[in-house]
Amino acid sequence: MVGLITAGADVSQIANATIRAADKAFTSVLNDEGFTEAVWLMTQLAIAAKKENFGEHLQSLGVNLPQDTSLPDLAAAISEALDNKLESNGGRSDLGEMSQRALVGALVEHISPKLPSLFAPGPDDVRAALAALGKKREFGELSRTFFAKLTNESMNYFLSKTLATHLGEGQRFATMNEMGQFEKALNMHCKEDSLIVEQFSADWFSKHRYEEGGDISRESSNGFASYALKKMKDELKEGARADAR
Amino acid sequence: MQDKRYIICGNAPTDGIKETPGRDLRLRLWGKDGPDKITLRIEDIHTKIVRNVPDVFQDLLEIATYVYCADQAIPRGADDVDSFGHGWRRDLHFIIPVRTPDFWNGQEILQALCSTLGFLSDDNYHFEFTKLKEAHAFQGYLDFNDDGRLHGYPEQVVMFSGGLDSLAGTIDEVLNEKRRVVLVTHKPTQKLNKRHRRLEKMIADKAGENDPLHIGVRVNKNKKLNKEYTQRSRSFLYVSIGATIARMLNLKSVRFYENGVISLNLPVCAQVVGGRATRTTHPRVIRGFQEIISLVAGEPFTIENPYIWKTKADVIQVITKAGCQDMIAASTTCTHTWEMTNHHTHCGTCSQCIDRRFAMLAAKADQYDPVEAYKADIFTQSRSKDEDKIMTAAYLERANQVREQDDITQFIARFSEVSRVFRYLNGNSGKVAQKVYDLYKQHAKEVCDAMDTMVGRNITAIRQRTLPGDCLLRTVYESGSVISVPAIPVDQKQPDNYFRKRGGVWAARFNGNAEVLVTGVDKGAEYINFLLARPNKETSVYEIVCGFAIDSCNAVLNSNETDEGFQVTQGVPLGDTGFVADRKAVEQYRETAHELFREIEEARAENNDAEIQRLEDEMTQITAAINEAVGLGGKLRKSNDKRKNIRDAFRSAVNRAIKYLEKYDKPLAAHLKESIKCGNAPVYRTEEEIVWEVRPIVNE
C-alpha cells in the first residue's frame, strides 16, 4: 500500500489495496456493536416513519426528540442514543465511533434539503422529513450515504497516518494541495462505489418490512449490516479493475 | 477492549475476586511505603481557610486520586489500526474503601461516575465501594504555608494550569473584574515549578493587594507506576481538588478557563476517534463533573468554562489588552513536558504548540512569544518525525476543510462529532450549533490568516527555495506551483498499451484502460516486459534469468541515481540479445573450450605460469557449464534439477505478476495468460499484433 502511494497510484488502486489490507480487521469486527447498532437505528428510523406512534417508537430506541425538533436536535439525539447504548454495555469501538459519525452525517445530509428552515422548523417539519424515510427509495439513498461515509471514514482511518508522511518536495504529495485533492478523490471514489448499496438497501428494506409485518427484527438488521458492508468491500475491490469501469 | 482489570485500593478486601497479580493493580494512599504507595499533597494551604471537610468530599478526593493513578499505571494497548484500536480501551474495575459507602454505591452517583469517566477517557469503568475501616484525617493531605497574605476570603476557585487560557482567565478575574480568587494548580512535573513561580510572581506584581492565593497539588507515586502518558482522567482529579477547596471556602463553583476550539476538540483526522481526542474540558465532561460534585455536595454546584466561545487568539487578546503581554513568554502550553529544557520550553510540534503559534500570529502578538523558545519551528523547519508531519498537516487541513464549508449543515454532516456537544451547552441545540459553527469558522480564518502572514514574511526564502522542501511554508505556498507537476504532463497522450518501469515501480496499461501500478512482483513484471519487447521471438529462459541477475547486480552497483523528475529514455532494460537456442549455447561452449586448449598450449610454450593458471580456471567453468548442458550419450539435458528450478522460478514469477494484475485489470491478465508461453524458450505471441510501449521512464 505504501509502495502504491509513493508510486503515485490512482485512488481506486489505493482504495483496493487498503481494503484488502484491512480485510482481516473488518472481518474481526463484522459484529461490532457500534456498527450494528447504527444500522439498527437507521432501519428503525425508517420503520418509525410509517408508525402512528412515531415519537414513542423513537423513544423506545433511546432517541429523545423535543417538541420543536431542529436538525441539530435530531443529530444530538441520534448521537446520544448511540452513546448511551454502547456506554451501558461497554461496546465502544473505533468502528462504532465511525459508524456513529457516518449515521449522523448521513441523516443531516439527507434531511436538510427537505427542511424549510434549519433552526426554527415548524412542529411537523422534521417529522415530515423523517416520515419520508419510510419510502423504499429514500431508505436506499440514506443507506447509500451512510455506507459511503463509513467507507470513506474507514479508508481515511487506515490511510491518514501514512499519507502525510509522504508530503514534501520530491515526494508523493509535493504540496498540501495535492494531498487534499487525493483525499477528495478518495471521498468521491467511495461515493461512486456506494451506488451498489443503494438499490440493494431499498429492495431489502421493502422486502423485509413486508415479510415482517411492518417491522424489521434486530436479527434481520444485523444480517443487512453485515451483507451491505461486504457488498461495499467487494465493490471497492472491483473498483480498481479496468473492466469494471 | 482489553480484558478486565481490578484496581484494589487501600485495604479493600478482595473476597470473591480472582486476583491476577500480573494484571491487577494495588494502590494505597495510606499505610507503609512500598511500590504501590501513592501520595496526594495539597500545598500552600492557609490555616484560615481550612474548615471541616465532609467525609464525602474526602472520599471524592481519594477516589479521584486512585482513578488518576490507575489511569497512568495501566497502559493502553497499541492504537494501531490493524485491530480497529482493540487494545486502546481498558476495562477497569475499582474496589475502593470509603467513609460513606452507601452514598457512593447509590445508583445515581455510580451512573454519573461511570458515564462521565467513560466518555472522558474512552475506558469502561466499574466501581465497588467498601467501608473504610480506618478513617484517615483530611489534614494528612495538607501542607500549610501561612505567609499572612490572605486579606479576605476568595470569591472564586479558578483552575490554573499555567497555560495561556488559564492565565487569561486569571487576568480577567483578578485584574479586570477585581475579584479575589484562589488558583489551584496541579503540578505533574518538577520541570514546571520554576515557570509557575515566575508567572505567579508576575501576576502578584500586577495584582497588588488583590494578589490571588495559589494552591499547588501533587500526586507522587513510584516511577514503575508511570506507564501510560495519555492521562485522560487528570481533569477529574483536578476538579475534585478544586471542588474540595471551594467547599472549604464555602463556595459553590469552580472555573476552568479553556478556549472553545480546544474544549470541543473536534477530531483533526479520521484516525482520531472517540477518546483519542482529549476531552478534558469537553462540555459533556464538564456537565458530568457538575452532576458528580452536586451529588457529593448535596446541593447545586457549578463547573464553568467562561471561554467556551473564544478561540485561542481571542484568549491572547485578553492578555494583551490587559497590558500583560510580558506574561506570555512565562506561560507554558506544550504537552510534551519530557522534551522541555531551559532553552526550549516548547517542543513546537505537539498539537498545543501548533495551536499556540498560529494563535499568536492571528492575535498579532507573536513578538511576545520568542520563536527561540520552540525546539522546532513548524513553519520553516523540516519535520523529520512522521508524527510531526501528520499532526501539522492534519491541523492545517482541518482548518481548510472548515473554511470550505458553505453552511452549517455541511459542517455538521462533515464533522458530525460536533453533535455530541449540542445538548451540553446552554441554549437550544439550533443556537448552540450556530455558535459552534461560527467559532470554528473564526478559528479556520485565523489559521489561514496566520499562514498568509508567515508566507508574506518568508516569501524571499520560499522563492529562492532556501527553506526545506517539506517545511510547512513550502508545502502550502507551492500548492499551485509547477514543481508539483510531473515532468510528463498528465494530459499528454499516453500509448494505449504499455508495460514499463516508471520510477521505482512498474506501470501497465492495456487497450487504453486505466493504468495499473504493479508493486511487490517486480521480477515477474521484468520478465513480462522483456517478452513484450520481443513479440514472437523465443528466448532461452536461462538467458533471460541470467540477464536479469546481471542487471540486478548492475542496479545495486549503480544505485546513486538522482531522484528528481522523469524522462523517457531509449532502449529496453536489457540490450537486444536476440534469439539464442540452447544448442547454440553448447556449440559456443565447445568452441570456447577449443580456443582455451589452443591458448593453453601457447602459454605452456612460453612458460607463462600465470596465464596457464587463468586459462585452467576458465576451463573449469566451461567444463562445468558443458556438463550442466550435455547429458549421457551426447544429448542435451532436458530437465535436470537446476535447470528445472530456473524454469519453474521464471514461470512462478510471471504467474504471480499476472495474478496481481488480475485484481485490477482482468482483460490484461487474461491476455497475458493466453499469449505468454513459458518453458525452456519463453515467448509472447499473439494472433493480432499489439504494439507495446516498453521503454522505461527513469529518473533523469
Strand content of chain A: under 5%
Task: Describe the largest sheet of chain B.
Answer: 7 strands, mixed
Structural class of chain B: alpha/beta
Uncertain segments of chain B are: 482-491, 559-581
- Averaged pLDDT of chain B: 84
Could you give the topology of this structure?
The complex is a heterodimer of chains A (245) and B (700).
Chain A: H1 2-7, H2 11-21, H3 23-28, H4 33-49, H5 54-60, H6 71-89, H7 94-111, H8 125-131, H9 136-163, H10 176-193, H11 195-211, H12 218-239
Helix pairs in contact in A: 2-12, 4-5, 4-6, 4-7, 4-8, 4-12, 6-7, 7-9, 9-10, 9-11, 11-12
Chain B: E1 4-9, E2 25-27, E3 38-45, H1 55-73, E4 91-98, H2 101-104, H3 107-121, E5 124-131, E6 142-144, E7 156-159, H4 164-176, E8 181-186, H5 193-207, E9 213-221, H6 234-248, E10 253-255, H7 260-264, H8 283-297, E11 302-304, H9 312-321, H10 351-362, H11 386-404, H12 408-414, H13 429-457, H14 459-463, H15 472-477, E12 498-502, E13 505-509, E14 516-518, H16 522-532, H17 541-557, E15 566-568, H18 582-605, H19 609-629, H20 641-664, H21 666-675, E16 676-677, E17 683-684, E18 697-699
Parallel strand pairs in B: 1-2, 1-4, 3-6, 4-5, 7-8, 7-10, 8-9, 10-11
Antiparallel strand pairs in B: 3-9, 12-13, 13-14, 15-18, 16-17
Helix pairs in contact in B: 1-6, 3-8, 4-9, 9-10, 10-13, 11-13, 16-20, 18-19, 20-21
Features:
heterodimer; A: 245 residues; mainly alpha; B: alpha/beta; four-stranded parallel sheet; 21 helices; 18 strands
